Amino acid sequence: MLRIEEELKSQKIEIIESERIHSDELYLTVNKEDFKTACLSLHKLLKSAVIMFFAEDMRAQSKVFRIYCVFLDTQNHSWVVVRTDLSEDALLFSSLAKDIYSASIFEREIKEMFGIMPQGCPDLRRLRLHDEVWPEGFYPLRKDSVLPKICAFLGSYQFRRVEGNGVFEVGVGPVHAGIIGPGHFRFSVVGEPIINLELRLGWTHRGIEKLLEGKDIFAGVKIFECISGDTAFGYSSAYCQAIEKILKVNIPLRAQYLRVIFLEFERIYNHINSLGGIALDVGFSFPAQFASLIKERLLQLHERISGSRYLKGINTVGGVQVDIEDNKAEIIRKSIFGIQKDILELEKMLYSSTSFMDRVDSTGILRKKTAQDLGVTGLAARSSGIALDMRKVFGGIYEKFTFNIIAEQAGDVCSRMKVRFWEIKESLGLINQGLEKLKSVVGTSGVAGGLPGGGEARSLDGVGIGCVEAWRGMLRVWCRIDKEGRIIRCKIVDPSFHNWEGLSFAALGNIIPDFPLCNKSFDLSYAGNDL
Amino acid sequence: MSLNIFKNSLRKGRVTVSLDKAAFIRPAEINEIGEELKRLIHKKFARSFHIREVDTASCGACESEIIACSNPFYDIQRFGIDFVASPRHADALLVTGPVSKNMELALKKTYEAVPEPKFVIAMGDCAKGGAQFSDSYYTCGGVENILPVSLHIPGCPPNPTQIIFCLLDFLDKI
Q1: Quick one: which of A72, A40, A7 has its CA closest to A386?
Q2: What is the ipTM of this complex?
Q3: Fold of the domain spanning A2-119
Q4: Which of A10, A415, A447, B103 has its CA 20 to 30 A from that of A499?
């Protein structure tokens, strides 16, 4: 860790305070003037995209707004957070967007939610508070925010325009033809190929970060489960991880194994759903229906073992509320055997169809460099040659399991498909290993109304980062709680946040009829992105 | 050419797969309810009841369950219910989510595009009153604040059997 501080000092950056809050979180406080240089040198040193970049209203405590920029140090398995204070009368900082692309959407977010100006940021359009319904000057995440009185048509969004002979625009959404979340896609095309695609999201914004403020830590779990329905377990795990870190609670081993098992179940059913979706979007309905049957079978299995088809209501701060007893383990083992067979069948169906492979091969290519610059994570990154998986980086309970990750180089729809098949198989292996390990761990799996640490743990306050490799990718939660066990500020970053941008680059050069295919191969969340 | 295809199919053999029936919980009532549903749709909607789905800031779990209604296990289409691509083809709007401010106008426009007579079905706990999102600065607190709601399907998310059951109940009453 000295490496980082030395590097910053060599750049003549004064580190006001260097604090290791948790074993895997290093916080460096710098001057406002040094903030940009510090971030740039860390970005260069750690070769990490901006993982999180957000502000916090701390006027009640110290009359300042604080901004945090989080990087990932893969070598030391640690987060490096640069923070600085901005006084109330000068709410601006110099923008990172021109040097680190992955910071740009975060800066837009900080501007719209806090009114803090990233000076020199080339794009300041709002992401979630749409100009049509929300006037400028109302910043919801400030502690003293007020609601605007009029909510009528106020302005309109400026799309990037492509002009010239024969260029025309195709707008799609927010209400799509399928049963899917709302988003607006604006294609600029010349003839058939897409030359520009702009995504306008934010339609499903529900103000979750604000809603969480002041909530009890136990009540927070329920809201987290409703952020993105298909990642309910991933979200609740990341949140619980953050809170448990702050409260310094070690959850029982059995509960840790159970979390692994449920998280892998979530990965499998969603990957199968996406594979079916890819088949459906090229009109190959037989494997699509077959995949939907496998998914249904898994959902029913979830219901049988946990009472919820979407794995809601399992996690809680301090453990899990659902146990997998021996009889349930037997049911799972039997089902997994059948599912494994079906997946091989599905793989054969898809790979043996020449016309299908022709559609997916070399469609929607996301280059490695683009993916790195954008900060694309998870499955989409692994399909473009970036072998990054949080289960490997932070290990934790996953160190007791054997599994491999795969990185495909091509970055097209086909490689995303291959990675999905690979991950499904690995996840089935992980579940089997987990069930074996459960046998050796007796005792309680979690909590019923209290924390393992007893009443003492509840009086701790502080900050912490929770991170889970959900099925879409790195799911990040940063949380600050107070001594009464209430959430003060919570920042959530869904893997889709950066991956949507990846999609808008992957679609370039493809024809519009191939767009649904590209879209489904990423299979991103609207609700998780918009919060 | 056609001979080749024929040869090919003989060589490949059966490509369909049989369903492992024991792997599913088969609610016997689905068929029973379904037949009843089919009878009602025949009588009241001339054999087809078409639904247009609108997501107004739901988390996506409700959408997943609506899609599940059409999978080969439930196969809601066999009873005469179909999910259509355009509101102009629809008899009813199926709205999920607490209605975010951004979606308010889109929802109203979609509703206007549905020909009369039309119904609004709200689905999921948050579509009624907003549930845990009711305090949010950016939601309208449920579908009933925007459109006249004829039916609410509770659950977070309601499973396909519940959806089918609620639809039956509703079609029975109108």
Answers
A1: A72
A2: 0.88
A3: Beta Polymerase; domain 2 (3.30.460)
A4: B103
